[in-house]
Amino acid sequence: xxxxRTMTAVRITAHGGTEAMEIAQVPVPTxxxxxALVQVRSVALNNTDLWTREGSYGLPGxxxxxxxxxxxxxxxxxxxxxxxxxVAAVGRDGDPALIGRRVVIDPAIYDSLRADAxxxxxxxxxxxxxxxxxxxxxxxxxxxxTGSELSDDQLAALPTAYGxxxxxxxRGQVRADDVVLxxxxxxxxxxxxxxxxxxxGARVLAVSSGSKLADVREAGAHxxxxxxxxxxxxxxxxxxxxxxxxxxVVAGDLVGEGIPLLAEGxxxxxxGALGGHEVSFDVRRLYLHNIQLIGSSMHTPEHFELLxxxxxxSEVRPxxxxxxxxxxxxxxxxxxxxxxxxxxxxLHP
Length: 349
Description:
Helix content is 26%, strand content 28%. The protein is α/β, with parallel strands linked by helices. The protein folds into 2 domains: 6-161 and 299-348, Quinone Oxidoreductase, Chain A, domain 1, CATH 3.90.180; 173-295, Alpha-Beta Complex (Quinone Oxidoreductase, Chain A, domain 1).
């Protein structure tokens, strides 16, 4: 494989709107020892791309501070966490047999090498990502999916959305006989959760908007709930004996209103705050009913390996809503922010 000296990349130069994004010709990165160079075939968009660009994550003790996923961003930064591609080169001591293999990159930067390590950084935020023709990644974060029947776009859709959803499912201990409520079910993480929970054999109650309910049901939801009407009333009608697990990317007022909907020993797992980051609830409902309130940020290495096994067996098939050339990454992010789509938006370098 002939590797050029320069490549097209889209990077952010500051926090702000899409005007903070620039198309640049930059050197193709050289893989260090323990790394590989991956030719990007497809890169998927996530809300993390928008919020990192906008600086919307805040800081501990200063929720309104402009910050990336885990703090200050080293600008300029090439965005893009979710990469499917082909190994183009390996660094010193890397196995040359990897070259030409089809791979998905685990985008997380972990706090240790343990199988249950916590993510403390993200490709596209704390290191350069895949809004480019090439990207480097640690060898231990490459997962060979050469034999998968999934397309490059479908593989690129997996890491953040499906990884986050699977992390929620595992941390929430979802079992085959559970009743599971999923919020934001038409978005990337929500739709991934619908497919993964359905594949696990649990009953799926999915919350979305009226125009998207049919798509969410087609993706695998047993029952759909229109967020335009009282979610609590609809859940009580559909699950009068209570919800075992809530997989929530919305938070906001629903947390306080919804905790009484949980069955004894129920688990409420939160991995987003689309509805607001400040919540209040009656804490008595928490301890009197042995409720668990669980924060879930992405996945562990063990979760991601499980996800890649699912990908190799093609047990889920991500929905692709639209594709853009990488040079139109700004337009793609604007489309993502409008939230009129169902499934994932991807970029092609």
